[in-house]
Amino acid sequence: MSRAPSIRQRGRPGGRRRVAPLAALALASSLLAACGGDSGTPELVWYINPDSGGQAAVAEACSTDEYTITTQVLPQDANQQRIQLARRLAAGDSGIDIMSIDPPFTAEFAEAGYLAEIPEDLQQTFRDQAFESAATAATWEDQLVVAPFWSNTQVLWYRKSLVEQTDLDMEQPVTWQQIIEAASANDATVAVQANKYEGYSVWINALISGAGGDIASETERGADAQVDIDSDAGREAAKVIAELASSEAAPADLSIAQEGQAAATFGGDRGAFMVNWTYILNGAGYSDEVVDDLGWARYPQTVEGEESRPPYGGIGIGVSEFSDDKELAVGALECLTSPENQALNAELTGNMPSSEAGYDEQKVQELFPGDLLELFQESLEAAAPRTASPYWSDISGGIQSTWHPPSGVDEQTPGQAKQFIEDVLQGRSLL
């Protein structure tokens, strides 16, 4: 694989057993709805996740004589973003017009009635524009409820000098077992995200999806969803985690590793392989030696011969049901998520577009080598979004509680996870 010099540049069934997560926040919330805005040109307030200026630049680009768009920054932690938005929306706060929403919380917000309806013609426009994984992540109960903005996926980053010492052919699909064995045999590491946090659930979801399974299904039934994690696919995922955790390739900080720690491990003397997001190299601060030694390949296969399902992440933009300027805000979505503005955001943040048209923009074409851009798009086409459920926070919490630490994972873990998740959903256990 070639080196990357430019990387350094720059609907609601009855009979639920308990109150849904956001409904519970609504009951607990004591916040008051915001007062009306000033007269004159409407100001649409867009609550954004922290970035390096991309969303603010897009907001400015989409401001018109009819309205201006300003931004307010949410907390860094995704779950804290969810909580802040949910508490305010539960109170009917009209001070939020537009929101950047992490994919695992989309169904939750839609089910709670917090998202304004997107007209059918606009839904179709956004679907036609987006990668299939991005459209899937933006959909709840057959309705596209947020507009896909940027989409993230993971690839397998590797050190070419290490691979040259093995018999691996990185032009062909590789398995988790193969890279673990190769790293172990060469006193090297495989860097992943395995702290007790959402990123660990992302890895587990990708492993299970790559083995042909799902974490849960029939999620329209809410708390009565079918929990599918105790399956052959679940056990294949557990096998991969157990193999890495017990191998010489396990980093010393495996059980507390998030994206940044994985990047640091990969850049160290024993770095060999890493799974991580498209944006990770922007701020990694790698030396020229590491950059010159950098290669990339498709996300590893869980089961040899079965296509891998890389993780899906990103941001969808939704409109608050309680906005005083709801129609204007819905209309602004088309500009905010246009290919041109997806590219502008990518240029400033490294968060890649949710559409092929966004990748075709010159700004994006200049960010990375052509074969890496092709790999990102191929990975997005095959990516596995997390299970769409209003109860994803509970499901993910149940996974983290039973699959962490990685050193404790074995063939019994999927069954333990299924039981605990069902108990949490039915109110028999607490996270």
Automatic annotation (TrEMBL):
One GO CC term, this protein: ATP-binding cassette (ABC) transporter complex, substrate-binding subunit-containing
A biological process term (GO) from this entry: maltodextrin transmembrane transport
Family annotation (InterPro entries): SBP
Cleavable signal peptide: 1-33
Membership in a protein family: Belongs to the bacterial solute-binding protein 1 family.
GO molecular function: maltose binding
Keywords: Signal, Transport
Domain of life: Bacteria
Protein name: Extracellular solute-binding protein
